[in-house]
Amino acid sequence: MEPKLIIHGGAGLALSDPDRAQSVRIALAQVVNEVQQALSTGLSATEAVILAVTRLEDEPRYNAGTGSVLQSDGQIRMSASVMDGAKQRFSGVINISGVRNPVLLAQYLQESPDRVVSETGGQYLAREMNLPPYDPTTVRRLEEWFEQKKSGIVQRAGALTMGTVGAVALDQQGQISAATSTGGRGFERNGRVSDSAQPAGNYANDCCGVSCTGIGEDIIDEAAAVRIVLRVTDGMNLTEALAKTIGEAKVRNRDYGVIALDHHGTVGWDKNMPLLLAAYTAEGTVGFSF
């Protein structure tokens, strides 16, 4: 099986600056090239999505890991999940603080009897893993928070061009995995839970894998990732499954985007937002959705 990869760096408004758009393409392409090379030398699908999301979490331009947005109380709380399609195993962390790569905690929980933990449980887990304390706050995100605090206007997530990150991979053994990580909506109520650490936003089986980005509440209401995966599992091709699911979302005024891979190696994406920042392997090069 020829391995494949698709990643995203969020969804939102159009990038009006051509130079900025090109810089995002370069950043995404670097991740795709690195992970695709590793897949070609035998990396598993789960290892590949962990590697991809870790790289994206370390890039301050995205709302995940370093560069995560601040909640209403000025704190950063991050969520991430991993879905191993071959094992049908989901794991995740919800609203954790003080770590560099939330997806690594989600990965660790793949082999735990307790596979989703939140807040304080995440802090205990980080200590168990001997992870050093880390502050993911950036000057840009602090400035955004101060502006929202001053204006009292809370933007919908779609107004943030750089958002949630995710990856879906197909490895040489034909196995599929997905991983997603986010800093949340920004300025949200304390305790709000995003879609990124739920099957609604990150799901895979042996037929298909999906990672979502956009308005988390809309993704949860639509059970978007699960809906697409089940449609492919039931015999619908990936292109049709994406189109039908996004079409239903449009009728209900939901705002989100998705990336996906099926067991045939078909790469797909769709959106109900102006922009989806996705990059993928395409005939020996890197393709983009924007």
Compact description:
33% of the residues lie in helices and 26% in strands. With 290 residues, it is of the alpha+beta class. Helix 1 packs antiparallel against helix 2.
Main attributes of the structure:
8 helices; 8-stranded mixed beta sheet; 290 residues; alpha+beta; Glutamine Phosphoribosylpyrophosphate, subunit 1, domain 1
Describe this structure in words.
- The chain has an 8-stranded mixed beta sheet with strand order 4-3-2-6-5-1-11-12, covered by helices on one side. The protein has a 4-stranded antiparallel beta sheet with strand order 7-8-9-10, covered by helices on one side.
- The protein is globular and about 50 Å long.
- It is of the alpha+beta class and 290 residues long.
- The chain is built from 8 helices and 12 strands.
- The two termini are 28 Å apart.
Topology:
Elements: E1 4-12, H1 18-40, H2 45-57, E2 78-84, E3 89-96, H3 102-108, E4 116-118, H4 120-128, H5 139-151, E5 165-170, E6 176-182, E7 202-204, E8 208-214, H6 216-222, H7 224-233, H8 238-251, E9 256-262, E10 267-271, E11 275-282, E12 285-288
Parallel strand pairs: 3-4
Antiparallel strand pairs: 1-5, 1-11, 2-3, 2-6, 5-6, 7-8, 8-9, 9-10, 11-12
Helix pairs in contact: 1-2, 2-3, 7-8
